[in-house]
Amino acid sequence: MEVALRHFTRDGAYASFDEDVRGMLTPGKLADFVVLSKDILTTPPAEILNTKVLLTVMGGKDTYRDKDFR
After folding, report:
1. DSSP reduced 3-state for 58
2. Could you tell me if 55 and 64 are in contact, meaning their C-beta atoms sit under 8 angstroms apart?
3. What pLDDT digit, counting tens, does each position of 47-62 carry?
């Protein structure tokens, strides 16, 4: 799971020559991230499909928020 996350984040930014502005949550980079209902690094693989997206943030702004997420 860690490898898959790295490929979709840091490695994806590197592949598109954007590693200076995205790919990791560090000061000065775009804050694009999601908040999930479960920790997918510790959730059994069969249960990952039941994970809900609670919040999506792009460029530091909410782009999606589940109605029950506070």
Report:
1. strand
2. yes
3. 999 999 999 998 889 9
Residue showing tokens 């499909």: 49
Phi then psi for 15, rounded to 5 degrees?
A: -65, -30
Among residues 65, 48, 47, the alpha carbon closest in space to that of 56 is found at 65
Give residue 45's pLDDT.
92
Q: State residue 70's pLDDT score.
A: 87
Kindly list the distances between the CA atom of residue 63 and the CA atoms of 11, 27, 40, 58, 60, in Å, as whole numbers in the listed order: 23, 20, 21, 6, 9
Handedness of CA 57, 29, 38, 12 (dihedral sign): positive
Q: How far is C-alpha 63 from the chain's CA centre?
A: 13
Q: Which of 51, 52, 57, 54 is closest to 66 using CA atoms? A: 54
